[in-house]
Design goal:
Helix content: 25-40%
CATH class of the largest domain: Alpha Beta
Largest sheet: 13 strands, mixed
CATH superfamily of the largest domain: Gcn5-related N-acetyltransferase (GNAT)
Order of helices and strands: EHHEEHEHEEEEHEHEHHEEHHEHEHE
Radius of gyration: 21 Å
CATH architecture of the largest domain: 3-Layer(aba) Sandwich
Shape: globular
Structural class: alpha+beta
Number of strands: 15
Length: about 375
């Protein structure tokens, strides 16, 4: 029973590629099916702005005409220009628990990337660090937070069996519902007064203005981070439009020093709680089910935080985390997850640990040189 790998040509239906996620994961009660509409838009070369600066091949492994695995091979030109690299990426990996099938997928992806001059492969990335990335290696059986991946435990063995090795781990911190320690609150507030720092929520009446502020800080604050790729205006605006119907302005914060924007944090209600019962379909009746289950959302995910370099000595990170905690955990009654944090980001990890957060999931990025 030979496995063959074929590329799905541009313009052809990606339904077999999309459907495979259900076949590989549907038996796991912790898996949250993605919304098919969102996934189709993400993969669509005409609709999603990532494709303006990237090349992508969607590869499908088949045995006797039946799909048994998939992978995307990705050349992100913006990444390579920013980091002066020739790095290709793999993403959207799904596969039966058969090493031969996994190796066939990776060989096809690597061949496609070699033809385009790539010297190494990194992943999984769906499509970059600005979207879902990493392979879950610890924390199975726990539902993923919104915009975080989930996969069967055996995927790590398949990827390592194809010659890939760990490059970096990404950590997800849990923060159980509890009142913020009074000592911590007093200490952070004292620092904020000394630094003349304040925190305010996004103003829904000036949404576009505040999104512009966050975009400027994000691209400036993260430029030295591992794996970072600046988002284009089109990508950032696309993401803002996707989030606008579901965001909570009280959980999207801007820090100011003497009235000037200096940092931000974004947290989202974990709508995976409401998406899970939909099985990927929002229409025609899924939207009503979503509205019903949205009332039961009990988690929040701290998605990202950025501080301008000239203000990183001012303890704005703890101030933003604390305000999110006080609002999300205290006023709204959420449990929290902060994800993801680089395993070697000592400052952020220490700040979260001081708040009583603990690592409850671990995701891995792999690398393989293309000799």
């Amino acid at each position: 029973m030979t496995v063959t790998v074929r590329e799905i040509p541009p313009g052809r239906s990606l339904k077999p590629f999309i459907d495979l996620a259900w076949e590989m994961n549907a038996g796991d009660p912790a898996w949250v099916p993605p919304l098919r509409l969102q996934l189709r838009t993400l993969l669509d070369r005409e609709k999603h702005p990532f494709h303006r600066h990237a090349e992508v091949a969607y590869l499908l492994a088949e045995r006797e005409g039946r799909p048994v695995g998939r992978i995307a091979a990705i050349v992100n030109h913006r990444h390579n220009e920013f980091h002066d690299e020739r790095t290709g990426f793999f993403g959207f990996f799904e596969c039966e628990n058969v090493a031969v099938t996994a190796r066939a997928l990776f060989e096809a992806a690597e061949g496609w990337l070699r033809e385009r001059g790539m010297e190494q492969v990194r992943g999984p990335m769906n499509f970059s660090t600005n979207e879902e990335c990493g392979l879950l290696v610890d924390g199975f059986g726990k539902e993923p937070a919104i915009m975080m991946p989930y996969n069967p435990p055996y995927y790590g063995t398949l990827i390592e069996g194809a010659g890939y090795r760990k490059e970096k781990d990404l950590l997800a911190y849990a923060l159980d519902r509890a009142p913020a320690p009074e000592r911590l609150v007093r200490g952070v507030e004292r620092l904020a007064r000394r630094e003349k720092a304040t925190v305010r929520p996004i103003d829904p009446k000036h949404f576009e203005r505040d999104v512009g502020i966050i975009k400027d800080i994000y691209n400036a604050a993260w430029e030295e981070n591992w794996g970072f790729v600046p988002m284009t205006d089109e990508e950032f605006d696309f993401m803002a439009r996707e989030m606008k119907p579901v965001y909570d302005p009280d959980l999207c914060l801007i820090a100011e020093v003497e009235g000037e924007p200096a940092g931000f944090s974004l947290a989202l209600p974990d709508l995976n709680v409401a998406f899970k019962p939909l099985n990927g379909r929002l229409f025609p009746f899924g939207f009503l089910r979503f509205l019903w289950h949205r009332r039961r959302v009990w988690r929040v995910r701290i998605l990202t935080l950025g501080i301008r370099a000239e203000h990183r000595h001012r303890a704005l990170g703890p101030l933003l985390y604390l305000r999110t905690w006080l609002v999300g955990e205290g006023e709204k009654g959420y449990h929290g997850e902060a994800s993801w944090i680089l395993e070697d980001n000592r400052e952020m990890n220490l700040a979260l640990e001081k708040m009583g957060a603990y690592v409850n999931k671990r995701y891995r990025i792999y690398l393989r040189p293309l000799g």
